[in-house]
Specification:
The structure holds 2 protein chains of 2 kinds.
Chain A lengths: L1 H18 L8 E17 L9 E16 L2 E11 L7 E16 L2 E11 L30 H5 E12 L3 E11 L4 H8 L6 E16 L4 E15 L9 E15 L3 E16 L6 E18 L2 E11 L8 H6 L10 E14 L2 E12 L11 H4 E15 L1
Chain B lengths: L1 H7 L4 H10 L1 H5 L3 H20 L2 E5 L7 E3 H8 L13 E5 L4 H11 L3 H12 L8 E3 L2 H10 L3 E6 L7 E2 L1 E3 L2
Parallel strand pairs in B: 2-7, 3-4, 3-5
Antiparallel strand pairs in B: 1-5, 1-6
Classes of the chains: A mainly beta, B alpha/beta.
Chain lengths: 395, 171
């Protein structure tokens, strides 16, 4: 599958290079972005190790959309990402799909995407790696957990989007079914470096519905996710065969005013875990959290942000006491929760140029590293901070 | 301060509220003089908005006498890409900071410029649609609307052009 997408990407890049004379030709539109920043995590290895200041905050993307016919197009984007310790550094195929649009099904417009599609069920998921579409470089980790980003970002399969515009409302209904490949780095992140086998995502099934008034200044939505994972051990392995199921229910809200905007998402996720550590191991946990974020526009080019994000790994153990007991003290209790307060500033220096800065104060570490990492306590203190300054350009 | 703001022609609601807050002691017992002053500030704000009144225009190649508000919103949010006759829709807009663009967004689309920009960015960088072409001046906007078949955009009311004004109706 990787080679197939590699070949498709190469062909698509050739089309972009040779067909376009600028950003727009009759059937081809292409765009891109470049962003570079400096960043530091203090008293945590979440972004940088040993409290170092680093330039490991790079995001580059190039995308194209080729209109094959009035209702069929091919869209793709490749990205290069460096987010420090947050995720694997390197280039990725962000999306590559065939889009089939049906203009009128009982008054609804339908878009069907086949291929590698982006998760469009959460407020920021569809352009998670596009810096100019995000309010902060590090998104609220309760919802946009970086440890699981490549799996939550998009999948290979089918996605449909139905939208209906009326005089008073805009409705959007999304449904998707697919799966993602989980590589060795992600496996180590999730199960620790003792695992040698393969994690396979059997499927991810998602549904969401959004409502907006005609002016689109409100956006209210709800989404649901169901996904099964399987661990297939090697013959000589430190882990056993196992399965896991994750269900996530989320509500989203966004409000746009002339000088300020408010967004919030709340989630509950239930995870079942069978096997892996011992053949008859069973665990079930319910995690809850969410964020609320306020951006105030001092002027059209200068704005400030305040946000609060909170996540509890297990609602039956909100302070992580049981977690510490069960791990015989290896995992400190503050790995059971994470509360983050962030402030940010944004300055649009010129059209398509932006400078963005942010600072996060964090209490707890549940989203900071894998819970199964044996050196977990060495990585993050109970309270820690992170900041970044990012310059971005897009076209 | 008020003179400067009036000179700039940019008395926003925020500024109005700031002034009202600053002089709240007068507002507790407003005299006719103070009421007249508030009315003057608000009417200046309103006149300022009227000065930027816009009309929706299309290239003469598009045989459509009217557009509904729903169609207009679908076009400018990237959800309608082709005219009924099968020709492609080309949308042209000015930069976010341009007063004409602001007026069009607020008065005709009933949206804020930054809200539209965010929507277009999401469409552009997720492969879900084609977004408007930005132009840097009013003159270029008019030229592109006159010369591009299937084009749609906006102009200040009263400008004489080869592009055709289209009436926006509620349904």
């Amino acid at each position: 599958m990787t080679y197939f997408y590699g070949l498709m990407t190469a062909l698509w890049l050739c089309c972009v290079s040779f067909s376009a004379n600028g950003q727009e030709s009759s059937n081809l539109q292409w765009h891109g972005y470049f962003s570079q920043g400096i960043t530091q995590s203090i008293d945590s290895d979440f972004i940088t190790s040993d409290n170092q200041i680093s330039a490991e905050l790079t995001e580059i993307g190039l995308n194209g959309l080729y209109q094959v016919a009035s209702n069929i197009s091919i869209a793709g984007q490749v990205v290069y990402l460096d987010g420090g310790n947050r995720f694997e550094q390197g280039s990725r195929l962000d999306y590559l799909f065939i889009d089939w649009t049906v203009d009128d099904i009982a008054g609804w417009q339908a878009q069907i995407h086949l291929g590698r599609y982006k998760n469009s069920h959460w407020l920021y998921s569809v352009t998670r790696d596009v810096p100019q579409t995000r309010d902060t470089a590090v998104l609220p980790q309760s919802v946009y957990f970086d440890g699981f980003r490549d799996v939550a970002l998009g999948s290979n399969g089918i996605q449909t989007r139905f939208s209906k515009y009326t005089d008073n409302h805009v409705w959007e209904v999304n449904w998707s079914y697919g799966r993602s490949t989980i590589n060795e780095e992600q496996r180590d992140y999730l199960l620790g470096s003792l695992a040698l086998g393969e994690i396979k995502q059997d499927f991810v099934h998602q549904f969401s519905v959004f409502w907006q008034p005609a002016s689109m200044n409100w956006k209210l939505g709800a989404s649901w996710l169901d996904s099964d994972f399987e661990y297939i051990p090697l013959e000589q392995d430190n882990r056993f065969a196992g399965m896991s199921n994750i269900r996530r229910f989320m509500i989203s809200m966004q409000y746009f005013s002339e000088n300020w905007e408010l967004s919030s998402e709340l989630l509950r996720e239930i995870q079942d875990f069978n096997g892996v550590f011992t053949p008859d191991y069973y665990d079930k946990r319910t995690g809850e959290g969410g964020f609320v974020q306020l951006r105030y526009l001092f002027s059209p080019r200068f704005s400030g942000l305040v946000s609060y994000d909170s996540y509890t790994n297990n609602v039956d153990d909100p302070n992580g006491v049981q977690l510490e007991l069960e791990s015989s003290g290896t995992v400190p209790s503050y790995f059971g929760y994470m509360d983050t307060t962030a402030v940010g500033l944004r300055w649009d220096i010129a059209p398509q140029w932006r400078l963005q800065a942010e600072h996060h104060w964090v209490d707890g570490a549940t989203r900071a590293v894998s819970l199964l990492d044996p050196d977990i306590a060495d990585h993050t203190e109970e309270t820690w901070r992170m900041w970044s300054i990012q310059l971005m350009y897009w076209f | 301060m008020i003179k400067n703001l009036l000179k700039q022609g940019d008395v926003t609601l925020k500024t109005t509220f700031a002034l009202l807050w600053k002089w709240r002691k007068y507002l507790r017992f407003p005299s006719p003089k103070h009421i007249a002053f508030i009315v003057l500030v608000l009417s200046t704000w309103s006149l300022n908005a009227q000065a930027d009144q816009t009309v929706v225009v299309i290239n003469p190649s598009v045989a459509k006498p009217t557009l509904t508000q729903v169609e207009l919103r679908q076009i400018f949010t990237g959800h309608l890409q082709y005219w009924e006759d099968g020709n492609k829709i080309h949308v042209f807009v000015l930069e976010d900071n341009d007063p004409l663009h602001k007026a069009f967004c607020r008065e005709t689309l009933k949206m804020f410029p930054y809200q539209l920009s965010r929507l277009w960015n999401q469409l552009t960088y997720s492969g879900q649609g084609v977004t408007p072409t930005r132009v840097s001046s009013k003159e270029e906007l008019i030229e592109r609307l006159e010369k591009t078949p299937g084009a749609i955009g906006y102009m200040p009311s009263g400008v004489v052009s080869k592009a055709r004004m289209v009436k926006v109706v509620s349904q």
